[in-house]
């Protein structure tokens, strides 16, 4: 069947459930990913699957989507027991999945992407019926209120629009049940709101939505029902109206959790990091960072908020020595380090949690022992005469694994075999335990479960209390707001505002990040950081 | 179909060491079986006086005999009467093994740094001439005899390493500072090496007493000495000392890669350059350094070719450097595997000449036989290399069942 005639609600079976997973157990060699999990999702509902990293959420959904067969248990879709050998079977049964990393061909148009693999044919199968594809997509867009141009090339689209293309693709294939894997991970706050609107439009038309998340706010805000997974088991199934965020957090982690990071004011010292008029140009000579002045003092956390791709990556690379700025200076501990190599900066006490743990922070085919020494391979702590003391490194790796709750707790497994959140914990642990003077952390808790997020935040604040300087870059507003003493918003390579995080609302920040000039409260700050700092009251 | 294939790949990628050895042995046996059938069937199309008459055709070649010569001939027929350990065939096998260890290590080191050094051959050519010229020059200032040996052999090896290292540094620097692809530059530099050495030879170093394009012979005491009592005879052009040095170098390179900061940085650069840069490695310098090391090992191969096999440099250099590429791939670019792979190549090489002497099987067919064996033995590792890219995409979310609770 094609996607356009997919209203299944008028033939209701006895079961009101769109999806019923009954006692699902999934074992991998050495691990039980799902242990007797029940999941009941009512038709036309939004259901959140909430849990920490490695709780088994994705595995469970992969069972429903036919990527894995369950070791035990039954998959019941629309009242019928099903056995999916491959995703194709699940799609045929009306189950579609929108992955975290979009599976779109960037050089092709929206319409081509949506129809890919399901093209309607004409002339006896000789040609693709493009007119029909366009017509069907426009029908879908009308029905669900999407504003997507089928003839646009995917490469031109924003992340939020790409996600809608993925949703359309799933609908086009006739899905009644849509599974979203961490759908908000890549979106701006505004785009997240839009997504919730899409959820509503879909459920109004009888579609059922299951989304995977480890963020409490999303589960309580957007879902009609929440199932909490912990250690591969379903520990609770609740309605968000009947519970509190604290209760949910406790269910997820298995103990009480402090949701707000506590950052009482600390007396700040001398500037540890100071950039003056730092400019970075990309390959085509376009300024991606234009004259940024930034100061981070000892005992202070400075946050940089911004939508990805507004120059924060390049600024951080210039600070940490991964890139030579095209103009301006970087001072570290009072010295001009603009020409220092990356190694010299590391040795000088600069720790860096990189934006991309897969490419930079970890060497994927190396085990955690080998990864524990990345950046310190020539430091006096681990190396003598160019020879690495591996026993010492192993002890260090095991310390980090234990302290930062990396799971499974084995130093001998390759980095690539760990889940994203656990990889992140290890990188953060390695960098924070370097005994740094300055920590430059990009998305320090990206993909990390709340229990560990809390711990990482505490460690960052500990460092601040010890009089270290911390620079945090994040697109997660809760995080930068909670941690920072001063908060800078970056847009198109410039700080549009430097402010006290307690003085702005999340909505205002979202607008600033989107390039809206502030009207009241916070004043615009041009390249000159001095007046920006003065205005924000951050300079004491 | 595709899923089955992926499942197979995944199985291969996660195979244990024992399984990998078993797979290699199975591959070798399969290749031998297939090659045997090939040889046997080919025999039907050859003409011979005596053969096996079967179904109206005459099968001229006996695969059993071919394999007997290939494997046991390479060792000098140990199962026949009058066998001595120090025979010429075994010397040929081990001489080839020794040279291929150096060449294989050269390629492997570059591979581990993420560089495809096809220029080992050129580095060998340049290193070999540097060795010959340096030894000829130094010999005129140094005493002969035992002292001469002790001084000249290390000088010769060092000279080869320096010459090859310099010649490897060129493509390294071109890549690091001009962005030139090392595959292209090393191939071109191979031709340049041949041209330059040949010009140098006719300009100054040609042996005046010979019409062959070659240098004068180095003094006999400057050649790699043979061990008394346990060593091979000098006329077999093979010394156990050379093999010992090659094995020591295998261990040394393995140690360098696994235990030192330099080796760690080299491997990191090879698998993930961005992570290396993040970890404070200067990628440009690392590129030059690893190509220099790779070139030096190629140069050492040239040095031993001069000091052990010929006692002089000849313009006609065999393709040891190119074979080194195959040795390294067969070994999965692992220094410890290079020893075994080089020995297999040594056996195939020396066994081939044994087949030529003992049977009517044409050398081309023997080449096919060797090729089949190499192909089969190399394929599992090759698929593992491919498979790693594939399988990683679909790693299951590792759940925790073994992990301790958070609240402890």
Secondary-structure blueprint:
The complex is a heterodimer of chains A (540) and B (408).
Chain A: E1 17-28, E2 31-42, E3 46-51, H1 57-64, E4 72-77, E5 80-82, H2 87-92, E6 95-98, H3 110-115, E7 121-122, E8 127-128, H4 130-144, H5 159-172, E9 177-181, H6 189-204, E10 208-213, H7 216-222, E11 225-230, E12 233-238, H8 245-253, E13 271-281, E14 287-297, E15 300-305, H9 312-320, E16 327-332, E17 335-336, H10 342-347, E18 350-353, H11 357-361, H12 368-372, E19 383-384, E20 387-388, H13 390-403, H14 420-432, E21 438-442, H15 450-465, E22 469-474, H16 477-483, E23 486-491, E24 494-499, H17 506-513, H18 529-536
Helix pairs in contact in A: 13-14, 14-15
Chain B: H1 2-13, H2 17-42, E1 52-54, E2 57-59, H3 63-72, H4 88-112, H5 120-139, H6 145-178, H7 182-205, H8 240-259, H9 261-271, H10 273-278, H11 283-310, H12 320-330, H13 335-358, H14 363-392
Antiparallel strand pairs in B: 1-2
Helix pairs in contact in B: 1-14, 2-3, 2-14, 3-13, 4-8, 4-11, 4-12, 4-13, 5-6, 5-7, 5-11, 5-12, 6-7, 6-11, 8-9, 8-13, 12-13, 13-14
CATH topology of the largest domain in chain B, by name, is: ABC transporter involved in vitamin B12 uptake, BtuC
CATH homologous superfamily assignment of the largest domain in chain A: P-loop containing nucleotide triphosphate hydrolases
Task: Pick out the low-confidence regions of chain B.
Answer: 392-408
CATH architecture of the largest domain in chain B: Orthogonal Bundle
The oligomeric status of these chains comes to heterodimer
Give the strand order of the largest sheet of chain B, numbering strands 1, 2, ... along the chain: 1-2
Q: Strand percentage of chain B, roughly?
A: under 5%
How many structural domains of chain B? 2
How many angstroms separate the termini of chain B? 47 Å
Which whole number gives the mean pLDDT of chain A?
Answer: 83
Helix content of chain B: 55-70%
Which range does the strand content of chain A fall in? Answer: 25-35%
Main location (chain A): membrane
Biased composition (Low complexity) (chain A): 525-540
Organism (chain A): Natronococcus occultus SP4
GO molecular function, one term (chain A): ATP hydrolysis activity
């Amino acid at each position: 069947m094609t996607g356009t005639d997919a209203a299944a609600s008028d033939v209701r079976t006895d079961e009101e459930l769109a999806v019923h997973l009954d006692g699902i157990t999934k074992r991998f060699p050495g691990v039980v990913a799902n242990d007797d999990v029940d999941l009941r999702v009512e038709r036309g509902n939004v259901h959140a699957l909430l849990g920490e990293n490695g709780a088994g959420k994705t595995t469970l959904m992969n069972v429903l989507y036919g990527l894995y067969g369950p070791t035990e248990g039954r998959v019941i879709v629309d009242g019928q027991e099903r056995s999916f050998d491959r995703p194709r079977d699940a799609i045929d049964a009306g189950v579609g999945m929108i992955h975290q990393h979009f599976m779109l061909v960037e050089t092709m148009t929206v319409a081509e992407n949506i129809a890919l693999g399901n093209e309607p044919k004409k002339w006896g199968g000789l040609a693709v019926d493009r007119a029909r594809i366009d017509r069907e997509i426009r029908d879908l867009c009308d029905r669900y209120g999407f504003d997507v141009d089928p003839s646009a090339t995917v490469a031109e689209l924003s992340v939020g629009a790409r996600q809608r293309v993925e949703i359309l693709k799933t609908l086009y294939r006739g899905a009644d049940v849509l599974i979203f894997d961490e759908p908000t991970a890549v979106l701006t706050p505004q785009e997240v709101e839009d997504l919730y609107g899409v959820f509503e439009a879909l459920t109004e038309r009888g579609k059922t939505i299951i989304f995977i998340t480890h963020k409490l706010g999303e589960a309580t805000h957007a879902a009609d029902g929440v199932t909490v997974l912990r250690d591969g088991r379903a520990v609770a199934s609740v309605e968000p109206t009947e519970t509190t965020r604290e209760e949910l957090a406790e269910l997820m982690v298995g103990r009480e959790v402090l949701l707000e990071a506590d950052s009482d004011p600390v007396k700040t010292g001398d500037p540890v990091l100071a950039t003056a008029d730092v400019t970075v140009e990309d390959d085509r000579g376009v300024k991606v960072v234009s004259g940024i002045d930034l100061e981070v003092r000892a005992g202070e956390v400075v946050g940089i908020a911004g939508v990805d791709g507004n120059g924060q990556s390049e600024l951080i690379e210039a600070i940490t020595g991964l890139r030579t700025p095209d103009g301006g200076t970087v001072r570290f501990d009072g010295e001009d380090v603009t020409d220092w190599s990356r190694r010299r900066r590391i040795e000088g006490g600069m720790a860096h949690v990189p934006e991309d743990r897969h490419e930079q922070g970890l060497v994927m085919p190396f085990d955690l022992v080998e990864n524990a020494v990345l950046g310190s391979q020539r430091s006096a702590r681990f190396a003598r005469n160019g020879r690495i003391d591996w026993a010492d490194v192993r002890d260090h790796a095991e310390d980090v694994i234990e302290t930062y709750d990396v799971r499974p707790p084995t130093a001998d497994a390759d980095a690539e075999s760990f889940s994203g959140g656990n990889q992140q914990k290890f990188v953060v642990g390695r960098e924070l335990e370097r005994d740094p003077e300055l920590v430059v952390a990009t998305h320090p808790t990206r993909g990390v479960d709340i229990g560990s997020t809390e711990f990482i935040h505490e460690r960052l604040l500990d460092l601040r209390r010890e009089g270290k300087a911390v620079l945090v870059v994040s697109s997660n507003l809760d995080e930068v707001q909670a941690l920072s003493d001063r908060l800078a918003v970056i847009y198109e390579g410039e700080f549009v505002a430097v402010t006290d995080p307690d003085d702005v609302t999340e909505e205002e920040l979202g607008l600033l990040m989107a390039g809206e000039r502030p009207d009241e409260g916070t004043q615009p700050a041009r390249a000159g950081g001095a007046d920006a700092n003065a205005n924000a009251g951050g300079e004491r | 179909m595709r899923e089955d294939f992926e499942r197979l790949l995944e199985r291969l990628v996660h195979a244990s060491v024992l399984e990998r050895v078993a797979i290699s042995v199975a591959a070798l046996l399969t290749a031998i079986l297939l090659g045997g059938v090939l040889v046997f069937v080919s025999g039907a199309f050859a003409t011979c006086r005596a053969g096996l008459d079967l179904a109206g055709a005459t099968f001229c070649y006996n695969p059993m005999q071919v394999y007997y010569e290939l494997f046991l001939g390479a060792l000098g027929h140990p199962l026949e009467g009058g066998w001595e350990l120090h025979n010429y065939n075994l010397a040929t096998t081990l001489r080839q093994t020794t040279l291929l260890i150096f060449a294989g290590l050269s390629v492997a080191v570059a591979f581990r740094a993420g560089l495809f050094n096809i220029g080992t051959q050129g580095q060998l050519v340049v290193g070999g001439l540097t060795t010959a010229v340096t030894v000829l020059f130094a010999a005129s200032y140094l005493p002969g005899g035992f002292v001469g040996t002790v001084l000249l052999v290390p000088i010769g090896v060092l000279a080869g390493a320096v010459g090859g290292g310099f010649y490897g540094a060129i493509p390294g620097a071109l890549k690091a500072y001009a962005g030139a692809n090392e595959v292209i530059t090393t191939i071109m530099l191979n031709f340049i090496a041949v041209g330059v050495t040949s010009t140098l030879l006719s300009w100054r170093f040609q042996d005046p007493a010979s019409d062959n394009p070659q240098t004068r012979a180095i003094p006999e005491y400057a050649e790699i000495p043979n061990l008394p009592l346990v060593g091979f005879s000098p006329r077999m052009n093979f010394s156990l000392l050379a093999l010992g040095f090659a094995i020591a170098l295998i261990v040394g390179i393995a140690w360098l890669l696994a235990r030192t900061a330099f080796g760690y940085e080299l491997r990191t650069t090879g698998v993930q350059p961005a992570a290396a840069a993040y970890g404070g490695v200067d990628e440009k310098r690392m590129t030059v350094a690893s190509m220099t090391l790779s070139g030096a090992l190629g140069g050492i191969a040239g040095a031993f070719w001069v000091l052990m096999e010929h006692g002089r440099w000849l313009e006609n250099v065999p393709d040891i450097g190119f074979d080194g590429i195959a040795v390294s791939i067969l070994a999965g670019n692992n220094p410890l595997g290079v020893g075994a792979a080089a020995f297999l190549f040594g056996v195939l090489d020396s066994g081939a000449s044994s087949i030529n002497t003992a049977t009517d099987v044409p050398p081309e067919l023997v080449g096919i036989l060797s090729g089949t064996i190499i192909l089969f033995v190399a394929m599992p590792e090759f698929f593992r290399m491919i498979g790693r890219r594939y399988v990683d995409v679909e790693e299951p979310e590792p759940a925790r069942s073994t992990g301790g609770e958070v609240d402890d």
